[in-house]
């Protein structure tokens, strides 16, 4: 079972994601990597990076996370074509515009659709496929923003909070099936998604997040905070009274 898992294709959903690509590069040596993204025809530099990292083959496929009706046909087709899915990395996500989302319900719903509803759809489809094959790994990205939701980014944060709950329950449902679900909870990651923002304390880089993901996958872990000392911060965050918490910056 373990050998099949480590040999099977790596599927990155959100194939242009900085964190997703760093994970893909680390898992690439000797493996098939599939980058699933919008505008899959313009992934040349991403494909080249993963190939240079040692992938045996790299494929690009069209994937729009928001179009949930396409998830099952796409994932079933990929699993059939490649003899299963070894490691699926859900790397798609949007930060959204909090100010706009506070008064524009369509934007608030769009953020939650990508960051929660679409994740639920992909996770449910993958869980069914991987359970049936009896092996595989799923990596899902939560965030410190969802550990205790802050006034400053409550739309994105609420989607991540929902995702934490869903991933925890699904992970327990998969316990003993041979399928590992890893919930990653990074703090502030210095990269494209946070361009122009001042780094928060205990921030990390996409490469550091990917190192932690690969280590946690290797250990069979179901949770990892990045950096690890954030686990203490997560605990302390729960103790702060609401009148103080509501003034927390994003
Ligand atoms: N960066 C952080 O500070 C941070 C912190 C904690 C957690 N996370 C989480 O980590 C994950 C990866 O983030 P990242 O830092 O790698 O961000 P990123 O570089 O901005 O990548 C996010 C990717 O999601 C893709 N995407 C968005 N909507 C999509 C859709 N409807 N269909 C398909 N792809 C879509 C984007 O694709 P396009 O190229 O097509 O736009 C983009 O490549 C996300 O879940 C994020 O919430 C990030």
UniProtKB/TrEMBL annotation:
Coiled-coil stretches are: none
Key word Iron-sulfur present? no
Annotated keywords? Oxidoreductase
What InterPro entries has UniProt attached to this entry?
NAD(P)-bd_dom_sf, Sc_DH/Rdtase_CS, SDR_fam
Family annotation (PROSITE patterns):
ADH_SHORT
Q: Which GO terms describe its molecular function?
A: oxidoreductase activity
Entry's Gene3D superfamilies?
Answer: NAD(P)-binding Rossmann-like Domain
In the record, the note on similarity to other proteins reads: Belongs to the short-chain dehydrogenases/reductases (SDR) family.
Which PANTHER family does UniProt cross-reference here? 5-KETO-D-GLUCONATE 5-REDUCTASE, DECAPRENYLPHOSPHORYL-2-KETO-BETA-D-ERYTHRO-PENTOSE REDUCTASE
Annotated protein name in UniProt:
Short-subunit dehydrogenase
Q: Which organism is it from?
A: Nocardia neocaledoniensis
Its taxonomic placement starts with:
Bacteria, Bacillati, Actinomycetota, Actinomycetes, Mycobacteriales
């Amino acid at each position: 079972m373990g050998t099949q898992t480590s040999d099977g294709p790596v599927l990155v959903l959100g194939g242009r994601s900085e964190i997703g690509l760093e994970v893909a590069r680390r898992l690439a040596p000797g493996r098939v990597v599939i980058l699933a993204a919008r505008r899959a025809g313009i992934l040349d530099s991403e494909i080249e990076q993963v190939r240079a990292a040692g992938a045996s083959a790299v494929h690009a496929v069209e994937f729009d996370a928001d179009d949930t009706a396409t998830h099952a046909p796409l994932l079933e087709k990929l699993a059939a074509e490649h003899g299963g899915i070894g490691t699926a990395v859900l790397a798609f996500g949007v930060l959204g515009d909090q100010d706009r989302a506070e008064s524009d319900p369509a934007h608030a719903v769009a953020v939650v659709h990508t960051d929660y509803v679409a994740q639920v759809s992909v996770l449910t489809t993958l869980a069914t496929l991987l359970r049936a094959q009896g092996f595989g790994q799923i990596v899902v990205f939560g965030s410190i923003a969802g550990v205790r939701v802050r006034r400053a980014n409550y739309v994105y944060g609420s989607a991540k909070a929902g995702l934490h709950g869903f991933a925890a329950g699904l992970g327990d449902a998969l316990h003993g099936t041979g399928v590992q679900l890893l919930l990653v909870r990074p703090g502030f990651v210095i990269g494209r998604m946070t361009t122009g923002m001042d780094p928060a304390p205990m921030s990390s880089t996409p490469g550091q997040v990917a190192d932690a993901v690969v280590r946690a996958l290797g250990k069979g872990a179901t949770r990892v905070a990045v950096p690890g000392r954030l686990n203490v911060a997560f605990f302390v965050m729960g103790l702060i009274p609401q009148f103080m918490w509501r003034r927390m910056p994003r």
